[in-house]
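Appendix B, example 12.
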Amino acid sequence: MSTAGFLHIYRRKKVVQALSAGSADCNSNKTEISIVTKKPEFDIVLWGGSSFTGRLVAEHLYQKYGIDGGLRWAIGGRNKRKLEATRASLNPGAENLPIIVGDARDRQFLGSMVASTKVVLSTVGPYALYGKELIEACAVSGTDYCDLAGEIPFIQEMMDRHALRARASGARILNCCGVDSLPSDLGVWCLNAIARKQFGYGLAQVTNEVKSFKGGFSGGTVASLGAMHNDAARDDNVADILKNPYAICPPGRRSGVAQPDIGIVRRSESGAWLAPFFMAIVNTRVVNATNAQLDYPYGTDFTYDEGWDLGSRPAARFLALVSRLFYRAYRSGPIRALMNAVLLPKPGEGPSRKAREKGNFEFQLIARTRSGHRLMLVVSGDRDPGYGSSSRMIGEVAACLAQDLSKRDLPGGFWTPGAAIAEKIIPRLIENAGMKFALLTETGDRRPIGSELFVSEAVNAGESRKIEGSA
């Protein structure tokens, strides 16, 4: 019997085949259940559960929510053996975690898989190579989706192709749900909310000074960054998209006031010398998109930039030079091949557990309000930013979409995290992802934002707090 169009769900040694809509095949030796039900079988399907980041997301979901608790989730991917290894790594008690095996290019399979869940969480990159069919399937079916894509041309392409479908079906599509770009995006959102509450005016300008960013790269990140820059080197249209700070705003809102140049060494208002920060090309675009999607609560003339504070002008200049040389070298085919073979981690590789736990990040966002006041917010995390922290961030984003936000609360479409779920996700990140959001006073004291934005300050004190919301 042909298995095309079937969703294979593995629980221990038992195979459950869920028939896709319209299939009439039958096999008395296997249990068959229709996936076309009012209530999806899963809250979350973690697609890419055997990837380096996928294994970390699975570990987070298991530690926070278990298998038989209030969150129903499964892991999926192409390789059953590797997925079983992920499940085995979660320690005793995880043997009942469902596994879904299939091909991300098989549209029938994808249609079946996305219909079985409320949310798809994807860690399979480069997304421009492996993620297009999955986003299309979610947009068509009404299934929510989140990923770690920092690939600006890919995001714009998906938005232009599928925004109308997602709006019609109710699918909420969220990209950039890791360290690029939650700290920057949510940090600016917090500052604007606080400014309006304290002074009655919003923001005019924000500079994000990256004070600490300690962690390693994985092969998947290298592949994603490499693919984006390779495309830009070959295609002027892609290069133009990368240069546009409004590239992933809604159509009709992809231009605006001149934004600061994030590619040069410059001195900030605080006096710090800022070097180019490699994630700024993503984070700045997401912040501007949030502003546009929310109908400009920061203002149409709002400006935002970010850079790396390395402590001195020479250090900033040195990093800027090294960055330019790296990207120029990486655009050369032979040199890129040599760097990938000898210097850079390969897909599936990443920092060790010890390195992830020793890592951290700290962003200091300095805002000038429209009333002339200055506000400073520190956003920080207690793990390696790219993996230890990002894996927990996106896990909480997926749980938030599944549990906290009904379709009535947020309609379908392409959203930034800040525009879609800021008020819901921040308490989750503080409680479950090791992040802190604190106002920085002029005397250097740090005041958790609970008293400014939330009813309870328990989220900042590490106490247990139930997150309200409709599922």
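The chain has two domains: 6-141, 182-384+424-461. Confidence is low (pLDDT under 50) at residues 1-5, 12-37, 455-471.
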